[in-house]
Design goal:
The chain is α+β, with helices and mostly antiparallel strands. 22% of the residues lie in helices and 17% in strands.
Length: 181
């Protein structure tokens, strides 16, 4: 992934939109009833689930076991995503998702954590670090054009291992309602 994007390092272009991207809505995600119970995965999947007790994790909806240091790999998280949302698929940054899909990005702080970003309908990318507010800023407080090229080093985490871009089905929220209700 890094090798493929090196030639675009100086390019400040955005990933093309499919027309199905979600709105960047901090007021909706940063309120006290949502911010503590939702994480980067639920944010990237675009779903607020009322009275969620445990944070959504890749693969839990599909019966996968708990994530730990041994199974928190790009390959395994991709497998979990594809089971949770079978219509999703990986895609390159400079390629548009199919209609009805929007783009997400995954990176790892190896041995510690994973993190998801999503592209919003304003072309910028945003994310939700754990139980904190959503943001469209990277580790250097810059707006995110491309999460691969942005700073993924934050105060307590450094997501320095990029994994992949994927296109997520926009109506996934209906599926998550059924799983997490």
């Amino acid at each position: 992934l890094t090798k493929n994007n090196k030639k675009n390092k100086k390019n400040k272009n955005f990933s093309p939109l499919s027309g199905s991207e979600l709105k960047y809505e901090p007021y909706k995600w940063n309120n006290k009833n949502v911010v503590n119970n939702h994480n980067c995965y639920s944010y990237a999947m675009g779903k607020i689930i009322k009275e969620l007790k445990d944070k959504a994790q890749p693969g839990y909806a599909s019966g996968f076991n708990y994530l730990n240091d041994n199974n928190m790999t790009c390959y395994n998280l991709k497998k979990r995503l594809l089971k949770d949302n079978p219509a999703s698929y990986t895609e390159k940054f400079n390629k548009k998702c199919l209609p009805g899909f929007y783009k997400v990005f995954l990176a790892l702080d190896v041995g510690n954590d994973y993190h998801w970003w999503r592209q919003d309908n304003n072309k910028y990318w945003s994310h939700k670090p754990g139980s904190t507010n959503i943001s469209n800023l990277d580790g250097n407080n810059q707006k995110i054009n491309d999460p691969l090229k942005s700073s993924r080093k934050f105060t307590t985490r450094n997501y320095d291992k990029p994994c992949f871009y994927a296109c997520i089905q926009s109506d996934l929220s209906r599926t998550l309602d059924e799983i997490y209700s």
